[in-house]
# Entry
Amino acid sequence: DPHGEAGVIAIFCGRLQDGHDLTIFGDGSQTRDYIYVGDVADAFVTAAAAPLPAAGKLDARGYNIGTGIETSVVELAEMLRRASGKEVAIRFAPKRPGELQRSVLDPHKAERELGWKARVGLEDGLRETYRWAAAAAAVPVNAQ
# Structure
C-alpha cells in the first residue's frame, strides 16, 4: 500500500501508476539489499522444512535473507521506471536526518546451512512487483 506505512518500492510503484515524479531524499546514493518477495517466501518455506541447530547462542537460528548485493535508491528508481514504461522525472529532496546510508546482508549462512539463496534478479523482481501492484490497483476494494 503506497499510501500507508510503506517501503520505497511500494511508494515508487504507486507514484508511477499515478504518473507522478519519483522523489528521492538525499542524493540517492544510499543503498539497500532489495530482495524479491517470492524469494523471501521461499526462504521461509525452506527454513520451516529444514532441521535447525539446537537453541543456544542468540543467532544460532538466525539467518539473513537477502541477496548480498547493494543497490542505490537512484538505481532502484531507474529500474522501476523501466519496469513501468513511464518516463516520470526523478526529483531530489533534502536528506532525511538519521537515514542509514548503506545496508547489505550476508546471506551465506542461509545458503550453507539451509541450501537457500535468492534466485530472482532485482530487475526481474521489480518488473513482477510492478505488474502485481498495477493489477492490484486496478481491482476495486469492494470487488472481493
In short: Residues 122-138 form the longest helix (17 residues). The CA atoms of residues 41 and 47 lie 10 Å apart. The mean pLDDT is 91.
